[in-house]
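go over this record:
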Amino acid sequence: MNLIAHEYYMITDEELTEMATLLGCFNELIANAKKELNMGSMER
């Protein structure tokens, strides 16, 4: 997958790392939002 991305999109390792970091942050935000939604529904 990385080889294809490098050749096709001319993406550098730094850019791939940045994208992975952003995705990780995004996933954390989603997980936190889900937890808060669950807590909110349990309080009712």
Q: What stands out?
A: Residues 13-43 form the longest helix (31 residues). Residues 14 and 20 are 10 Å apart (CA to CA).
